[in-house]
Amino acid sequence: MASIPATWMRGGTSKCWVFERADLQVAGKTLDEVLLRLFGSPDERQVDGIGGGTSTTSKAVILSVSANPDVDVDYTFAQVGTAENTVDWGSNCGNCSAVVGPYAIERGWVTAQNGTTAVRTLNTNTNQLILQRVPTPDGEVERTGSQMIPGVPFPSMPVGLGFFNPAGKTTGRLFPTGHPVDELTFDGSPVRVTLIDAGAPVVIIDAAEIGLGGLDDPAAIDADSVLLAGLERLRRDAAVRMGLAATTDAAARAIPKVALVARTRAGDDADFAVSMLSMGRLHPALAITGSVALTMAAHEAGTIVRELSRELSRELVGAGAGGSTGRTAPRTDSQLTMRTPAGLVETFYEDVDGIPVVGAVRSARRLANAELLLPEVW
């Protein structure tokens, strides 16, 4: 029986099993096979494994010290299917990204500073560089903290995540079709969408165009099989349009994600409201990679988000030289507030030496160290 060391961590609104790459090498087995058996998939309960039975609790982060002198840690994200016998490697998870910096410091891969320690991490799924800032009072990772985020009931350590130049990491273009707005079909009717690749590929839809309010009851959406089936067909069509798949049947389960956006209600100071679907179900709060895409969309002329954003013009100044995207230049210190089913999510957009950096603050905590056992035969 193989024994594999692992660390269980919460990053943002996700729970992630953290592995060191060398520890997942099992003779005669592929990495996908090892992860599926460890997590207990395929089984929607994942009863004979470490998976939590949902998309936000069936995630793996695989780490190694980087050979790149400009990077501290390379990490690969895996979305492990629950009922599906698949592992999706097509995107990153921004919430799980928050565990990488703290783990690397505690492991001794990065020397802790007195106060705050910066960790340069590279997501290998998307070739995305993320600068993480981890509180290290007295030269040690903070074990507790007061950072609260929507979707998590308890406070813990804050981790700042800044995505450097996140546009086009999966498809090669911020707008894979070359347009800030395209047209797809939902329930037989045309629907305007923004297809954007920043942080992760995302399909942005005005919720009103499909008969929703933008902050509808999550349980009601998850229970509406007709609505979910229609959104899944639209999402798969978008995958083909974005160049992510050759056919709708070949579209990955994890990307593109779907964001339903809406104007905020009277008296709400948020710039806009959003509900996001991930792996066919409503996300309990908001995927961080999705929030990066929404933030980039808010700074681009002609997008669905830009049309709906309330008073966004106060965050944007001047006419930019964005070429075919029609981009308007943001302030060097602009913030965006999104109303999600779980509460407010704030993101930032900075211009660092001409390079856009988009990010947010998450919270993270180590839950347990574990020894995972693989049966000899499965």
Automatic annotation (TrEMBL):
Gene3D superfamilies: Diaminopimelate Epimerase, Chain A, domain 1
InterPro entries, sorted: PrpF-like (IPR007400)
Keywords associated with the record: Isomerase
Molecular functions per Gene Ontology: isomerase activity
Top-rank lineage group of the source organism: Bacteria
Pfam families membership: PrpF
Family from the record: Belongs to the PrpF family.
Protein name: Methylitaconate delta2-delta3-isomerase
Organism name: Cryobacterium melibiosiphilum
Record lineage: Bacteria, Bacillati, Actinomycetota, Actinomycetes, Micrococcales
